[in-house]
Design the sequence.
């Protein structure tokens, strides 16, 4: 069965639209972009569109590639203290001369809609419900929940240990809370016997960033497969195509459920950004 992430994301944003329409004031998402990374420009366009759909004000602060770090940090200070701003997002990657940890740590954690600030990461790890949870992990958890896929007591194997997906997703699914309580294994580039690990999964989550990395032989029959990968691959005539970390064509033949790329996890990430902005506003 193919999980329709786009449809589930729409259900969530429709509900948020209804709630936001009843507010006296509109939430505001302020985005800082430095330079012109092509993928970042695409992501920002999607985020802007999603905000417009639900009635969240969206402001983009677009700086030139060689803008000084101090100017960016001052802008963050300025947005932190601006009462009309509910959420702040610093689009990654930042140019090399800007220290991204410094930028993230400068954010007011209560406006950190990405959930990247160490305060939010720490709160997630200790199960503090006031944490702003990173959008992709929250999107994966919500996608499973809305698809009636129970994670409790299941063996969830996450391939990839990034700070934005693998690590926070492991922390989220292992929590002693409803819709969590999973047994989580995190595999990565140094893991030995990867195939044995992935084949032991009830739910396999690919977040590696390598096109078609998960092949059919790495997946046991009737496994739930969630593909977090967004890889831009060059096609004929200079066209780019987006593909996931999972060999969808072959793995979909044996998986019990699988998310496609695009229209799987991607729309859920955007929906969770909208949800986090609304939650930060409240
Ligand atoms: N770049 C790629 N994904 C993300 C994301 O989720 N948040 C931010 N801020 N930058 C990104």
Sequence:
């Amino acid at each position: 069965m193919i999980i329709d992430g786009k449809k589930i994301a729409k259900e969530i944003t429709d509900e948020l639209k209804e709630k936001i329409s009843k507010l006296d004031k509109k939430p505001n998402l302020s985005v800082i972009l430095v330079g012109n990374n092509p993928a970042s420009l695409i992501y920002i366009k999607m985020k802007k569109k999603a905000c417009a759909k639900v009635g969240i004000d969206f402001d983009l602060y677009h700086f030139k590639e060689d803008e000084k770090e101090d100017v960016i940090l001052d802008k963050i200070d300025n947005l932190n203290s601006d009462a009309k701003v509910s959420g702040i997002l610093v689009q990654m990657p930042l140019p090399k001369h800007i220290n991204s940890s410094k930028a993230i740590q400068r954010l007011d954690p209560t406006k950190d809609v990405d959930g990247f600030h160490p305060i939010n990461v720490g709160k997630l790890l200790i199960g503090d419900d006031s944490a702003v949870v990173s959008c992709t992990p929250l999107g994966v958890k919500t996608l499973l929940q809305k698809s009636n896929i129970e994670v409790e007591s299941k063996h969830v194997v996450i391939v990839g240990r990034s700070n934005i997906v693998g690590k926070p997703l492991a922390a989220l699914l292992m929590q002693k809370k409803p819709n969590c309580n999973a047994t989580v294994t995190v595999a990565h580039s140094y893991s030995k016997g990867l195939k044995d690990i992935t084949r032991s999964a009830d739910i396999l989550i690919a977040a590696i960033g390598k096109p078609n990395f998960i092949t059919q032989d790495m997946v046991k029959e009737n496994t739930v497969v969630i593909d977090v990968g967004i890889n831009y691959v060059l096609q004929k005539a200079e066209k780019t195509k987006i593909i996931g970390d999972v060999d969808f064509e072959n793995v979909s033949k044996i998986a019990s459920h699988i998310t496609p790329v695009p229209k799987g996890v991607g729309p859920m990430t955007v929906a969770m950004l909208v949800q986090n902005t609304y939650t930060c506003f409240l």
Notes: The chain has a mean pLDDT of 97. Strands lie at 28-34, 57-63, 87-90, 155-159, 183-187, 203-206, 224-227, 231-234, 240-243, 257-258.
